[in-house]
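Exercise 7b. Backbone tokens:
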């Protein structure tokens, strides 16, 4: 099982949604002292991609966002890793790191 990128605790798996295709699951960090617990947003600044291109990519992966000189994507501790996985390719294409509003520090 994968470890949390913040506190290195083992991630837990939880079945949480019943979809048309069946049950869906996610992995999450259950460590209450983990810094991940206080992250409220990820953010992405347009670097290689235009603002409009990033808007289109965010819409295509189905994440909610707001604009304030950069893209802020709201996240909860339970949604953290699934949303982060959706944003990974966008960050690669943009030539940027995915950062969080807790510290605006890039991931390890």
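Sequence design result:
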């Amino acid at each position: 099982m994968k470890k949390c990128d913040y506190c290195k605790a083992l991630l837990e798996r939880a079945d949480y949604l019943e979809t048309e295709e069946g049950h869906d699951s996610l992995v999450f960090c259950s460590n209450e002292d983990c810094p991940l617990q206080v992250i409220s947003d990820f953010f992405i600044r347009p670097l290689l991609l235009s603002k409009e291109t990033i808007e289109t990519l965010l819409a295509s992966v189905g994440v909610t966002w707001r604009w304030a000189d950069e893209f802020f994507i709201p996240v909860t501790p339970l949604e953290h890793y699934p949303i982060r996985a959706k944003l990974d390719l966008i960050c690669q294409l943009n030539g940027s790191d995915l950062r969080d509003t807790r510290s605006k520090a890039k991931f390890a």
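Instructor comment: The chain has a mean pLDDT of 84. Residues 80-94 form the longest helix (15 residues).
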